[in-house]
Specification:
Elements (H helix, E strand, L loop, with lengths): L1 E5 L4 E5 L3 E7 L5 E8 L54 E3 L4 E2 L3 E9 L17 E10 L4 E10 L5 E9 L5 E3 L2
Length: 178
Amino acid sequence: MNIFVNEENKQFHLTNGKISYIFNVLKNGSLGHLYFGKSIKNRDDFSHFLRTDIPTAASCHFFQDDPAYSLETVNHEYPVYGKGDFRDAAIELETKDGRIGNGYVFKDYKISHGKPKFNGLPATYANEKEASTITVQLVDESTHTNLYLSYTIFQHYPVITRSVALENVGTDDVYIKK
């Protein structure tokens, strides 16, 4: 099993010979979903998987110079409230003074062997030889929170698990609405 990272294109490819899962950092800093399915060989670039349907004139166009880029048509790894994507959000946060968290952008990633344990929660588990995990850190400056998405690929099974952790790195309370 392998986790490949293309630093130049900010693309992440998890594969074990049975399945592949590919995601990337989008132009606006959020994470986009590119592929999940039958195992494919790693290559330098998976940009051809990026959905670039030209949205209708009524769509929100994020970048003036790129009419094909709309959060309405891009597949997201972890959609947030607002920003031109009208689908349901995976998370909604609000601060005491009414700021709504919707600006999660990529900051960093870490690859580890095995699968992290969750204290007090039911979960799958695997040792260092049975799985590999990539944890991606996203930050939202408006709510002073970090979002950690962890993806684990298992060596002998066509299985990928994903977990989410939220961290308040500010001094104010943050309310999880969804």
